Amino acid sequence: MIHKFDAIVVGAGGAGLRCALELIQQNFNVAVLSKLHPVRSHTGASQGGIGAALGNEEPDSPEWHFFDTVKGSDYLGDQDTIEVMCEEAVEAVLELEHFGLPFSRTAEGKIAQRPFGGHTRNFGEASVKRAAYAADRTGHMILHTLFEQCVKNDVRFFNEFYVLDLIMDGSTCRGVIAYELATGDLHIFQARATFLGTGGYGRAFSITSNAHAYTGDGMSICLRQGLPLEDMEFVQFHPTGLRKLGILVSEAARGEGGILRNSTDMANVGTGKDGFMAEIAPTVKDLAPRDMVSRAIYNEIKAGRGIEGTGDTGADYVVLDLVHLGADVINEKLPDISHFARKYLAVEPITEPIPVQPTAHYAMGGIPTDVDGLVFANARNDVVNGLYAAGEVACVSVHGANRLGTNSLVDIVVFGRRAGKAMINYLADAEFGRVSDTANEFIQGEIDRLKNGGGKEKVVDLRVAMQKTMMAGVGVYRTKEGITESRDAVKELLRRYKHVGVTDKHAFFNTELVEAIELGFLLDCAWTIAESALLRTESRGAHSRVDYPDRDDAKWLKHTMISKTGDDEVAFDFKPVTITKFKPKPRVY
Ligand SMILES: Cc1cc2nc3c(=O)[nH]c(=O)nc-3n(C[C@H](O)[C@H](O)[C@H](O)COP(=O)(O)OP(=O)(O)OC[C@H]3O[C@@H](n4cnc5c(N)ncnc54)[C@H](O)[C@@H]3O)c2cc1C
């Protein structure tokens, strides 16, 4: 089946919906394709807030936000794009309010704001209230608000359409190939402009806060087309996942005053006294950036100050103490995460501290783009005509080596909108080009191989092995030996992946087949993460090499661009970091 649209938006999360809304308002014929129903996108799981210098609670400025984001990125973020994001964040949040988003309010009725990790006033003086929020369901509200606007404007949705490939014609993208889950049919979607907003790859790790659908599809699809991925070594571990499960306890909990405690500090639960972060980051304490807090937790555990686990696990966690906040704050401002603690750990956060450990959370790297979402084809900034990306799948390089909390929700609305505007300009004279009606042959072959190739390898075995090795070797702390072992293990899994077979032969809702395809995408991401981590012989932001503990600006103040050059080979190129206003300095909080 062949469909024709001016523009195809792949992904119905915040980035995709914001982009689609821009296009539909100019009366373009636009379709959104999503492997999930739109409101199941991961944007809906995000909790704590969206950062913008509204200054509703105390003085703030986009320039301070700009500085904090640069410093948070460990100076790897591109300063031209960060400046744009922080400037446009204010308007983007007000626009969401005008679309009807029910933000939490101050007593005077303004959008309420709370502190978040790494966000400060006056270039690092003290924490600032910058995160606009709707209780701890901010992403849920953003997603529903944008979805309603899209429905109101008659955006055409193709839900449960799984995009498996781009249609490329030299250096121009002509659309996508999608698999319809309900029927098993393959569809060709021809488009003059294509947008990817497919989210991250957290499911490559065994402990993650990410949804099951976070399988790195967009990144892998580009990699397989010979396009590069940028800064893949930078994987954010959020410090406070529920122990063993990885389900997120938002940083909003520390924004509201929550304190991390170790085994020597349990007598202080409920008192509000400082915990171990006060020594590591005296100014912002528990609101240091995530990379620092995650490392601090590991260090506490390693130094024997972890809290005794039960049975086999030993002392492997610390606790997050909210008790001193009292029932009203916990129930009103943190209702969802309290529910998670009760439901999944049988812990009552009003009276007991919550057991937490770092959890794989966010992809800083991804598909390289310019400030308008246009995809780069290489490190020399040649572009792919007609192909745009934004959100977690992309690397416009606003997060550099470490993303600050609340900056992803800003990223998706600011750059989703900018990409939409850029696509409108491009569509003024872009043509459909020719697409062969056999464009789906390659993908059909892959599906046939998985269904009928007689492969004996099982998806679950490979997936579990990948998740374990990535967690062990490419987690919060990394060494040459550990990364090499994981990289080799992932390459072996990629070889075994060729012999995967699915037992379900049905056409309709073949979730076993979908999981097999997702595993292939995840393995590509895991591979490029490990290769990039091995290459970067320094510690910067979330990439912490025990064997190279220092940041090395002379050698490594640059972006890595990894491409796949063969079944078993990758190649690297590099791009300079754009520095405009803030010269790199040591990162002290
Ligand atoms: C638990 C949690 C809490 C968070 N809290 C915050 C927070 O408080 N503040 C903040 O700034 N950030 C937060 N984040 C990060 C932030 O939510 C995400 O980075 C952001 O929402 C990603 O948006 P997106 O539009 O890029 O992707 P998503 O919202 O994940 O959307 C991806 C879309 O792509 C579709 N898709 C994927 N692959 C395919 C394919 N192959 N074919 C078709 N469709 C496909 C999916 O169906 C989905 O619609 C949080 C993340 C998590 C996991």
Level-1 CATH class name of the domain at 441-576: Mainly Alpha
Give every kind of bound small molecule, once each. Answer: flavin-adenine dinucleotide
Which fold name fills CATH's third level, the topology of the domain at 441-576? Methane Monooxygenase Hydroxylase, Chain G, domain 1
The Rg value, from CA coordinates, equals 23 Å
CATH homologous superfamily label of the domain at 441-576: Fumarate reductase/succinate dehydrogenase flavoprotein-like, C-terminal domain
Rough outline:
globular
Residue share in helix: 25-40%
Give an overview in words.
The chain is α/β, with parallel strands linked by helices and 589 residues long. The protein is 34% helix and 22% strand. Strand 7 and strand 8 form a beta hairpin. The longest helix has 25 residues. The termini are far apart. The model has no long low-confidence stretch (mean pLDDT 96). The chain binds flavin-adenine dinucleotide. Flavin-adenine dinucleotide binds next to helix 1, strand 2, helix 4, strand 7 and helix 11.
Question: How would you summarize what this structure contains?
Answer:
With 589 residues, this protein is an alpha/beta fold. It has 16 helices and 23 strands.
